[in-house]
Q: What sequence folds into this?
């Protein structure tokens, strides 16, 4: 879906990169950081930069599009501060020269952004092929600790974050329906449609309560986990919001091999118990997460080739789900 930055073709991508880099340089003037190096990382929900100082400190500078509600960003910080009070090691928010967390950063041409800065969590990102069984087990335990902390979170009256559930899924499904032909055949989309209908019916009946629903990271895939001294730490809370804990797990294990998913669940259950019948529900959220991801990337033509290459496996998962065959923890045959 629209992230607020125009990245749908190479011309717009270059223009967006130019704008966010200009905004980053302007933003740094508003922080008490004697910086000597800045490195662009990526653009997604926001543009991110790694900033190094003469004192050896490092920060994460984020440039947000103006259409990203500031109240949502402040609310994400509220949750992060709460997690830190519970002993969870996460990036700490840095205030600007005026003592606030939000910094206006207009750039040439009237384009407006705002910035935020956090302390850099030092560590190493690992590809799934480099993850050991022990590291994945610890990732599961880390997520369980986040959920246990969130269990006692009481948001302020002004707190506002997205909710990830039936309504958000309907929006993503509608968006995918407009753009699926970029990488999914009509025949393949019929399979997606059957899967989406099944997901929506499940979400419609699912009741939320404090034990299964609360504030979640919502994007804790392996790219948003760093390892230091063999311990995992969560980063990038830009998508955090209200949702089912099983949905949070599905987002995390979507990029893992089936055998690795087993280790993740075992790690989670070592710190937080799951219901005996969790697998069918988790598989539903797994399908939901796949459809969301394809909806988000569906308009980016620079992603099209990779999305096409993924379809045989993705459609094998959809087929298994529609037919009621469990698929999370065993390899599937791909035609």
A:
């Amino acid at each position: 879906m629209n992230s607020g930055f125009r990245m749908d073709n190479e011309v717009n991508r270059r223009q967006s990169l130019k704008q966010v880099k200009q905004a980053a340089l302007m933003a740094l003037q508003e922080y008490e950081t004697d910086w000597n190096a800045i490195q662009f990382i990526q653009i997604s929900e926001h543009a991110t930069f790694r900033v190094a100082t003469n004192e050896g400190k490092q920060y994460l500078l984020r440039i947000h599009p103006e259409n990203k509600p500031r109240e949502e960003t402040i609310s994400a910080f509220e949750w992060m501060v709460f997690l830190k009070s519970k002993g969870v090691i996460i990036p700490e928010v840095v205030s600007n020269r005026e003592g606030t967390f939000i910094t206006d950063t207009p750039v040439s041409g009237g384009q407006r952004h705002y910035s935020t800065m956090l302390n850099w969590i030092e560590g190493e990102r690992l590809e799934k092929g480099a993850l050991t069984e022990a590291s994945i087990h610890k990732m599961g335990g880390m997520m369980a600790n986040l959920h246990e902390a969130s269990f006692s979170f009481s948001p302020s009256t002004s707190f506002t974050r997205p909710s990830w559930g039936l309504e958000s899924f309907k929006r993503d499904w509608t968006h995918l329906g407009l753009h699926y032909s970029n990488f999914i055949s009509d025949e393949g989309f019929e399979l997606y449609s059957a899967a989406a209908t099944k997901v929506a019916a499940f979400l419609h009946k699912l009741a939320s309560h404090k034990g299964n629903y609360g504030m979640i990271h919502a994007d804790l895939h392996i790219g948003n986990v760093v390892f230091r001294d063999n311990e995992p730490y969560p980063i990038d809370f830009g998508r955090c919001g209200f949702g089912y804990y099983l949905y949070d797990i599905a987002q995390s294990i979507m990029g893992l091999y089936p055998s690795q998913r087993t280790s993740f669940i075992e790690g989670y259950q070592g710190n937080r118990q799951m219901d005996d019948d969790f697998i069918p529900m988790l598989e539903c959220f797994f399908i939901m997460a796949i459809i969301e991801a394809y909806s988000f990337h569906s308009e980016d033509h620079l992603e099209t080739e990779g999305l096409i290459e993924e379809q045989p496996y993705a459609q094998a998962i959809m087929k298994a789900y529609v037919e009621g065959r469990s698929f999370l923890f065993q390899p599937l045959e791909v035609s």
